[in-house]
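Good day; I would like, with your permission, to put a structural problem before you. What I wish to show you is a protein chain and, alongside it, a tokenised description of its three-dimensional fold. Thank you for your consideration; the sequence and its tokens are set out here:
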Amino acid sequence: QVQLVESGGGLVQPGGSLRLSCAASGSIFSINDMGWYRQAPGKQRELVASITRDGRTNYADSVKGRLTISRDNAKNTAYLQMNSLKPEDAAVYYCSARIGIRSNVLVYRDYWGQGTQVTVSS
């Protein structure tokens, strides 16, 4: 059983900062790419940022220079540092990870967390 648990969401004023965490637990062999997605009301879920196991990152144009993704492989955890937040950043943020589990064979599949709410408002 593998779980992804996000934390760190909340209410912040425009221009403020938040740090989201995503911790993977369970019978994990290894974790490849990890990513943060967000979904605002009435909108499709969109990729915010992703990071490979060796630290290569990718960002949506709308967050470049303000949001930073990182990970700690020893802790099976990814982070999203969010600075200079704008009202349009408000959404439910989801963590995703491609996780390998070894039983008889090694199988990789994508897992999702339950989401954490980020509200940006004065």
